[in-house]
Amino acid sequence: MSISLSVLLHAALLGALVYGWMLFRRPPRPAPTLAIEARVVDARSVRGVQQPAPQPAPPVEAPPESVGPPQPTAEELAQREQQRAQEQAAAEEQQRAEHAAAEQAAAEAAAAEAARRAAAERKAREEAEAQKRAAEEQQRQEAKEQAQREQELKRSLAAEEESSKARAGPALASWQTQIAAKINRNWLRPPTARPGIECMLNVTQVPGGEVTQVSIGECNGDQAVRESIEAAVYRASPLPPPPDPALFDRQLRIDFKPD
């Protein structure tokens, strides 16, 4: 129905334009002329006749102005209609292209966002797995270190127990007696030394028996006696080795009784 009305309106408009154009193109009818008889007389041949004043020339009528541009022909109207239809089709095609481009851009953006999220999730999983492996490795290392400490502690306790057993026996007393005897042999008794001297010696040694430090604890001798005994300890270096390596001790306490 709408198509029929549109066709009728276009036909009516086209007919009105053609009718107006035909009226505009029709030539105007000539104005009627009157027949007048006249004779031409020279004014100079008539004497005593007053010459009339010259009459002004009648105004020249300007040609009628054009009322507007010529009306388009039916062919021009058809061409304009076709051009208008082509422009509308081109605009619709451009709109469809822009819509398709927008949809493609949105799809690409969604795909990029999905890829980014997938990469982020994969990275998070990898980091979590790496942290888990690191924690497990740390636990294994701590367990290994704990086992090593326990083994070292067991070995230390066993060595200390053996050393305690050795010290509780006669071997330690025999070794200390050997050390005191060597110090006594290297002692140069000062004139102020009296019988009954007893001094506690603190001796530091290194493996091999070399003496590195000597200090005198409780002692009933004077300063000369103390200095002479200290010098005797250094002269006795290296000290005799223990009969059992478990008896070795860097810090020795020797009860020195030269008499």
Would you spell out the secondary-structure blueprint of this structure?
Blueprint: H1 2-25, H2 74-168, H3 170-185, E1 199-205, E2 211-219, H4 223-235, E3 251-256
Antiparallel strand pairs: 1-2, 1-3
Unreliable stretches (pLDDT < 50, length at least 5) are: none
What structural class do you assign from the helix and strand content?
Answer: mainly alpha
End-to-end separation in angstroms reads 148 Å
The geometry reads as rod-shaped
Q: Regarding quaternary structure, how should these chains be classified?
A: single chain
- What is the beta-strand fraction? 5-15%
Number of domains: 2
- Give the biggest beta sheet: 3 strands, antiparallel
Strand numbers in spatial order across the main sheet: 2-1-3
Number of strands: 3
Q: What average pLDDT do the residues reach?
A: 82
Total DSSP helices = 4
Keywords for this structure?
single chain; 259 residues; mainly alpha; Fusion Protein Consisting Of Minor Coat Protein, Glycine Rich Linker, Tola, And A His Tag, Chain: A, Domain 2; 2 domains; three-stranded antiparallel sheet
Summary, kept brief:
The protein is mainly α.
Structure, explained:
The chain is mainly alpha-helical and 259 residues long. The chain folds into two domains: 97 residues; 87 residues, Fusion Protein Consisting Of Minor Coat Protein, Glycine Rich Linker, Tola, And A His Tag, Chain: A, Domain 2 (2-Layer Sandwich), CATH 3.30.1150. It is 57% helix and 8% strand. It contains four helices and three strands, in the order αααββαβ. The chain has a three-stranded antiparallel sheet with strand order 2-1-3, covered by helices on one side. The termini are far apart.
